[in-house]
Specification:
The protein has about 140 residues and is mostly helical. The chain has one domain (about 10-135). About 75% of the residues lie in helices and about 0% in strands.
Length: about 140
């Protein structure tokens, strides 16, 4: 989980980097769940519309008459569950993104504190490149 670089001199920096990586993975998981839920809702809605066009006329509010059938009711329930799941993961994604960005900002503000002399300043660049390359965490710019 930690960056494979020599951070023995900077235990605080190592701890913050480990936490950054952990929060980034959590954010990525929530984004995947949100995207999956969105895709499922979209596909179920298309299926529902296709069933309505193929087997029925249009009833109240343009909903397919086949809504009276068990398949229509089941699809509406699945669409509703998928929609609420999508909203739930959207909120979790926003919260995880906010927490990640706050820690990233703190890390960038405190970088001079972690790498004070010139030798360590060169090592800092290697750490930043590894974070960007391995974990897609950009700490070069705010």
């Amino acid at each position: 989980m930690s960056v494979q670089l020599n951070l023995k001199d900077n235990p605080v920096a190592k701890q913050i980097i480990d936490e950054l990586i952990k929060r980034k993975k959590k954010l990525d998981q929530f984004e995947k769940q949100k995207n999956r839920s969105s895709l499922i809702v979209m596909l179920l809605s298309l299926l529902f519309a296709a069933i309505g066009v193929k087997w029925g006329g249009h009833g109240i509010l343009g909903l397919p008459v086949s809504l009276n059938g068990i398949i229509g009711i089941f699809l509406v329930i699945l669409i509703g569950i998928g929609f609420f799941r999508m909203v739930h993961f959207n909120k979790k994604t926003e919260k995880a993104d906010k927490e990640f960005e706050e820690l990233r900002e703190e890390f960038m503000q405190r970088q001079e504190e972690f790498w004070q002399d010139d030798r360590n300043w060169k090592e800092r660049h290697n750490v930043f490149k590894q974070l960007n390359h391995l974990h897609d965490i950009n700490v070069f710019y705010r």
